[in-house]
Amino acid sequence: MNPFLSIRALRSGYVGGAVLHGVDLDVDEGGIVAVLGRNGVGKTTLISTIAGFLRPYEGSVTLDGQEIAGARIDTIARAGVGLVPQGRRVFTPLTVAEHLAIATRRPTAGPWTRERVLTLLPRLGERLGHRGDQLSGGEQQMLAIARALLGNPRLLLLDEPSDGLAPVIVAQVGEVIREVSTEGMAVVLVEQNLQLALSVARDVAVMSKGRIVHRADCADFQSRPEDRRRLLGVE
Amino acid sequence: MSPNSGTDIGTAARAGSAARRVPAVMVLAGLALAPFVLGSYAVGTLSRILVLALLAMSVNLLTGLTGLATLGQSAYFGVGAYTAAIVARKLTDVGVVQLLAAAAVSALVATATGWLAVRARGVVFLMLTLAIGEIVYSAAVNWKSLTNGTDGMSGIPPVVPLPGMPALELDGLVYFYVLAVFLVLFAMVAHLAGTPFALALRGIRDNEDRMRAIGYPTRRYALTVYGGAGALAGAAGALWVSVQRFVSPGDAGFEIAALALLAAVIGGSGRIWGACAGAALVWLTRDYLGNLEVVDGHGKLLLGALFVTAVYTLPRGLTGIRVPRGLRSVAWPSRKRTA
Shortest Cα distance from B47 to chain A (angstroms)? Predict the structure, then answer.
């Protein structure tokens, strides 16, 4: 079976120079891959390139067989890629209700409706009239996830979703990620929080110097502390 | 909590909503009665303020709602004015026809030129719109067979609002025509502000990349609102011709563009009534206060001072002014909760 997301020999970066030097990565339908690595190895660059914010120098990114590398951001989003960006980036002057309205205005067929999202993230239902900048960090993260889900993506990209959140909120984020993957949605999770990453992902891809240098399933990775120490510098 | 507290709060909310309408009703009543208490010059000035308010609203659609600061709306204002003048002189003196023709031609020109402009953002967008304004101004000066060049177009017949109605010769009657069109267009823009389309524009203003990542073709949205704002500016241009019965290249020039942007900024971005209030303040400062003996004709200097003062003291414009808590019960007595 072909992988749902297939990345081959991807080179990408910024004006100053390349950051990704030939990334290969596969994610199956319903699969959750945690992309791990030290700071500056290219994790966010990888997410930004898949989502279309960066145009790759070379290589391919296919989603269910459809080439999306170099396409416009909105085209990639409509092809089925949802993004929960680092730092949440909610629309600060808009209320929660307006966020949900914006996200549902361009729906694609799928299971995620406003009602279902509010059932999954009930805290948002209590804060519908609050502006983005009146929400806590955890609520903003839930809102960013809700915004992505309402587009009914087939691939969800999460960039550091636990960044700056309290442990109890991080656990909730983990539950949400597990829940969405049961619908067959593929998930790429870039995460510094190893505990969260290993608790939700099925596979691990470790990056170093712009390449994927290690692939393993989570159980294997967890059972090999020497790999974690060598690749990530943690036990 | 008392059993009827929900009812009390609901009653208070309705009373608050009604109280907020009071200023609008007062302004409307003032506008309706103005020709009966003001002289001819003041009524003409009011008409011009309403026209500039429409132009400022079109600037506000781009600058306030979408976050695209523009200096090019005078171009579409000028296109609308010349279109209405040509229609009035060669086709019909019916105002509605002039309005529709002006709005359609301006929308067309705005969409064609906006196709290029909306590819840029920030200062580059501002400079492109400035260039578009200058191109239209140059065309108005040099395309003499169509515009009569710097001499402008005169001999425009008095407007007939609708077929079968008499021509409006008196300033007061022209004012009522302008006011009626203004109210219709104001209501249309107010309705637009509550639609999902406007919500998407606010999203683009706040974070365009995020909107694209949700799947919005933001450039298409920007071009649509650019064309719509052009149509509104064109309609304002047609009304300008009905009031002035004259049009010249200056009406499509930089000064009009700057005044409209100034009105939108002083009024406060994002609120329709703010643009209108800003237009009134700008026009009155330039043409009324500026002509007082004490100012000695330095209206533009006064305008500059007003702008600097507004930027420093009202960063959110007139719409950002909040009535101090202690005065709220005086300003809106019925908003005070009784429960």
Answer: 35
Per-residue pLDDT of chain A (235 residues; tens, 9 = 90+): 678 999 999 999 998 889 999 999 999 998 999 999 988 899 999 999 999 999 999 999 999 999 999 999 999 999 999 999 988 889 999 999 999 999 987 656 778 899 999 999 999 999 999 999 999 999 999 999 999 999 999 999 999 998 888 888 888 889 989 888 888 899 999 998 888 999 999 999 999 999 999 999 988 888 888 887 888 877 6
Residue of A nearest to B211 (CA): A74
Domains of chain B as residue ranges with CATH: 21-321 (1.10.3470)
Put simply, whether A114 touches B (Cβ < 8 Å) is no
B215 has a chain A CB within 8 A of its CB: yes
Token pair 């989570």: residue: A218
Nearest chain A residue to B218 by CA: give it.
A74
Q: How far apart are CA B203 and CA B210, in angstroms?
A: 8
The structural domains of chain A, with segments of one domain joined by +, span 5-232
Reading the block at residue B138, the tokens are: 């140059």
The complex scores an ipTM of: 0.88
| Count helices and strands in chain B by DSSP H and E runs | 13, 0
Contacts made by residues B15-19, CB under 8 angstroms, sequence distance 24+: B15/B334, B15/B335, B16/B332, B16/B334, B16/B335, B18/B334, B19/B332, B19/B333, B19/B334, B19/B335
Which of B332, B329, B338 has the alpha carbon at shortest distance from B16? B332
pLDDT at B6: 43
Among B261, B272, B256, B288, smallest CA distance to B46 is for B288
Find out whether B107 and B238 touch, Cβ atoms under 8 Å.
no
Strand partners, A82: A156
In the chain, the amino acid numbered A120 is: L
Instruction: With CA atoms as reference, report the closest residue to B184 among B244, B246, B103, B241.
Output: B103
Cα-based torsion angle of the residue sequence B296, B300, B301, B302 in order, rounded to the nearest 10 degrees: 80
Report helix angle B299-313 to B272-287, nearest 10: 140
CA A233, chain centre distance (Å) = 23
Query: Do B200 and A53 make contact, defined as CB atoms within 8 angstroms?
Result: no
Asked if A147 reaches chain B (Cβ–Cβ under 8 Å), the answer is yes
Residue A123 CB neighbours (<10 A):
16
How do strand A17-27 and strand A66-67 relate by DSSP bridges? unpaired
Three-class SS state of B307 = helix
C-alpha A167: how far from chain center: 19
Give B313: exposed, middle or buried? Use CB within 10 Å, 0-12, 13-18, 19+. Answer: exposed
CB B55 within 8 A of CB B279: yes
Say how many CB pairs under 8 Å bridge A and B.
61
Residues 6 or more apart whose CB falls under 8 angstroms from that of A106 comprise A78, A151, B214, B215, B216
Interface check A92 vs B, CB under 8 A: yes
**CATH, domain range A5-232:** 3.40.50.300
